[in-house]
From TrEMBL:
It catalyses: D-ribitol 5-phosphate + CTP + H(+) = CDP-L-ribitol + diphosphate. It comes from Romboutsia lituseburensis DSM 797. Belongs to the IspD/TarI cytidylyltransferase family. TarI subfamily. Its EC number is 2.7.7.40. CTP binds at residues 7-10, 83-89. The record marks 162, 219 as: Positions ribitol 5-phosphate for the nucleophilic attack. This is Ribitol-5-phosphate cytidylyltransferase.
Amino acid sequence: MIYAEILAGGRGSRMGNTDMPKQFLLIGSRPIIIHTLERFLLNDRINKIIVVTPREWIQHTIDLIKKYIPLDKQEYIEVCKGGSDRNESIMSGIRHIQNNFGINDDDIIITHDAVRPFITHRIINDNIDMAIDYGATDTVIPAFDTIVESIDNNFINSIPIRNHMYQGQTPQTFKIKKIVELYNSLNGEEKVLLTDAAKIFAIKGEMVKLVDGERFNIKITTPYDLKLANALLQGDKNDK
């Protein structure tokens, strides 16, 4: 089975004065999360989509799905409660899969930010293919700007070679049994170091295959991003 897990646990603190998490804000006439779900529903390789969201927003998420997603597609989507952080939310979705469907050796989970609505069919398929072959993937784009490291946020500590640097996006895709095994083997100090799921594999010395992303596969986290997303959406409409 191939599962897509849509991570909709963000509270949207960088979005400014809004009364709801950023994934529920509109681009065009529909919520961001609906645009994202529609991209995954178009891929017939995906068997089930799990949306992970804060407990207090579960019913709102369900209501949006009922309002915007065609009835015959709603059966592919399930909503469950997220965890205290990103990786705990991923594991919460996996526990939902375990409890409701069981987990087989070849099952794969595609984890994706709800606020990256411009994910392409090609990126999704590349993630699936590479996860089947390698067990773990991370979607990235080359770092076009020079990366500067500053530990104290005041002075430069190092300037890494730009040709070796990439900017991480999502999806990140994994064989489910492997990510569960590695996550459960982490100690408390290792869990503190985690910034995303791919780092679980990196900490344990496991290989993660790079998948080419796209510069327009943006994450909507600020008011500027929201304006850019609306412009991208309008551009898509004009191209059709």
